[in-house]
Design goal:
Layout: H1 2-22, E1 40-47, H2 54-73, E2 81-88, H3 93-105, E3 112-113, H4 118-130, E4 135-137, E5 154-156, H5 163-176, E6 181-186, H6 191-206, E7 211-217, H7 227-235, E8 240-243, H8 247-259, E9 267-270, H9 274-280, E10 289-292, H10 302-315, H11 321-340, H12 345-352, E11 356-359, E12 362-365, E13 377-386, E14 393-395, E15 400-402, H13 404-407, H14 411-416
Parallel strand pairs: 1-2, 1-3, 3-4, 4-5, 6-7, 6-8, 8-9, 9-10
Antiparallel strand pairs: 10-13, 11-12, 13-14, 13-15
């Protein structure tokens, strides 16, 4: 992922330094004091810009930059220009927490755009609640974030760790049937990895798929040396391997597994989205099952086509799902501000709760009971042929779309998971 990260980090770092130097943000309401600077309002993003999963945070930051640019081109919000503060959390909860607290108390941000890691997000949610600041989760997706750490100021704009594995399991059933199969899992050892694996295995069982779990491996997030876990996985000869790694970790796994010839004997399921496919440049296992929360090539709206064109012009690349989801987060916050006619955290959160947000990926309903967005999961197989525009293989067509109506917890189920 170095060639992706190095190319993009310069622009992000420059933006962060510039924003920090010129910004004295404006805002209104909430528990935290909010100073004003005539004609401006700030929002903050604490995300991962370094390490093996940096491509997710860099993509998200670029999507947010473009969203703020487009928003300002239309006059900003409430007659104020929007400024974006971006900080690196290093995928560390303590750093993310410090970043967010500083943004709220020192920079007086009106909203927070969420981090990559669900572990980091879990540390930030209580701050959003304490200081009555809306937080929009556009990468981190653990179901615990809107249950265990529930706050009325939190909004999850991605399929959570119940919805995503249910969508993948539905694809599994549709195209692979219910015949007996041996399954192994390979996932980062933190809340996202565990909850996604648990959700997938439960979904297989609920769908009546006859499987035998032969191995589970839990490498650390960002661990470069996965040889012990990979060797253990290979020794169990699974017919299907569900890999929950992402970004550079998935690229590292794929390159090492190729060296063992692993994909000749197992069907891999992995988050082979835009950035990993680009980094692998044709080495991703053709026929492997890929899942993605917002692939630009599968979302056919005029707004998405316009966004892709603008993104390519600005950054010289095509957008990852993380860029699309972060753009959607800014759209959601701006909708809430416009509807509430206020920057106040309570007013904005109330305006978004239960609303359907017009976005570049189409209308996005935000459920009132738990603030989970009713959004689909996309699943297909990795193509063996080069995509003419991207220059490397993407996915085969058609793309399977698992609708939120088939994957979401009911409101009663979601509410039951909150602390009592």
């Amino acid at each position: 992922m170095k060639h992706i990260r190095n190319r993009r980090l310069g622009a992000v770092a420059a933006l962060a330094v510039t924003a920090a130097a010129v910004l004295a943000a404006a805002g209104a309401g909430g528990a935290a004091p909010r100073s004003t600077q005539a004609g401006t309002v700030s929002i903050g993003m604490s995300t991962t810009l370094s390490g093996s999963i940096a491509s997710l945070g860099v993509g998200a930051s670029q999507g947010a930059q473009l969203a703020v640019h487009d928003l300002n081109a239309r006059g900003g919000v409430l007659g104020k220009k929007v400024k974006l503060i971006i900080k690196d959390d290093g995928a560390t909860p303590a750093t993310g927490s410090d970043n967010v607290k500083g943004m709220i108390l020192n920079d007086h941000v009106a909203a927070i755009l969420g981090p990559v890691s669900s572990g980091v997000a879990g540390a930030e949610m209580p701050l959003a609640d304490q200081y009555k600041t809306p937080i929009f989760l556009n990468v981190a997706n653990s179901v615990t974030l809107l249950t265990k750490t529930w706050t009325k100021y939190g909004f999850q704009l991605v399929p959570n760790t119940v919805m995503e594995p249910r969508g993948i399991a539905a694809y599994f059933q549709k195209y692979l049937g219910t015949r007996s199969v041996s399954v192994a899992t390979f996932a980062p050892d933190y809340v996202f990895g565990h909850s996604t694996v648990d959700g997938f295995l439960k979904a297989l069982k609920d769908l009546g798929i006859n499987y035998t779990l032969v191995d589970q491996e839990w490498p650390a997030l960002g661990a470069p040396n996965i040889a012990p876990q990979l060797s253990a996985l290979i020794s169990h000869h699974p017919q299907v391997t569900f890999n929950v790694q992402f970004g550079g970790d998935l690229v590292n796994f794929t390159n090492q597994a190729l060296g063992y010839g692993f994909f000749k004997n197992t069907r891999i399921i992995g988050m082979y989205s835009y950035d990993p496919l680009k980094a692998l440049s044709g080495k991703a296992p053709a026929g492997g099952i890929a899942f993605d929360r917002a692939p630009y090539w599968a979302i056919r709206t005029p707004q998405m086509a316009k966004f892709v064109q603008a993104y390519h012009k600005k950054f010289g690349d095509y957008p990852s799902e993380w860029a699309i989801l972060a753009y959607t987060s800014v759209e959601t916050w701006a909708y809430g501000v416009k509807k509430a006619k206020s920057l106040d955290g309570d007013a904005v959160s109330s305006a978004i709760s239960g609303a359907t947000i017009p976005t570049i990926r189409g209308p996005v309903p935000i459920r009132a009971c738990d603030h989970q967005a009713a959004v689909p999961e996309y699943v297909a197989t990795v193509n063996g042929k080069k995509d003419p525009a991207a220059g490397f293989p993407l996915w085969t067509r058609p793309v399977f779309v698992a609708p939120a109506s088939k994957t979401m917890l009911s409101c009663d189920e979601s509410l039951a998971l909150r602390p009592h």
